[in-house]
Design goal:
By secondary structure, the chain is mainly α. The protein has 4 helices and 2 strands. The protein has a two-stranded antiparallel sheet with strand order 1-2.
Length: about 120
């Protein structure tokens, strides 16, 4: 679920994956694309994303760290997916989960008009 100022994501890494490296790659690739798009359109949002660190001025899309939760059971994982889907409703952005464009809710429920595509969840990886 992509919220106006943050993101909720449920990742199911492969046994040999290193979650920190995976999240780093997601941040690196997405920030490059986001910043290129903002620069191409001369978006005023670039100024809001600009920070000064160690004497350097540059735009930053992501916070330095993420806030994670390890799901130890499949039930816990689906509870987190449900939490993500309900976030836009709790924030008052929409009246129901299926109305929020930037959510995987519609994909998971087999509906049309999907803005975000998901990878299939495969049990017993």
């Amino acid at each position: 679920v992509i919220m106006p100022e943050h993101l909720h994501m449920v990742l199911i890494p492969q046994p040999d994956d290193h979650l920190g490296e995976l999240i780093g790659a997601i941040k690196r690739i997405s920030s490059g694309r986001i910043l290129a798009s903002l620069q191409e359109s001369s978006s005023p949002l670039l100024a809001k994303l600009t920070v000064i660190r160690n004497g350097r001025t540059y735009p930053v899309v992501w916070q330095r760290r993420c806030y994670d939760h390890n799901c130890r059971t499949e039930k816990s994982m689906w509870a987190k997916v449900d939490y993500c889907h309900k976030n836009p409703v709790r924030r008052g952005l929409v009246a129901s989960e299926g109305r929020y464009r930037w959510s995987s809710f519609r994909w998971y429920h087999g509906l049309t008009g999907i803005a975000l595509d998901m990878d299939e969840y495969v049990r017993d990886r």
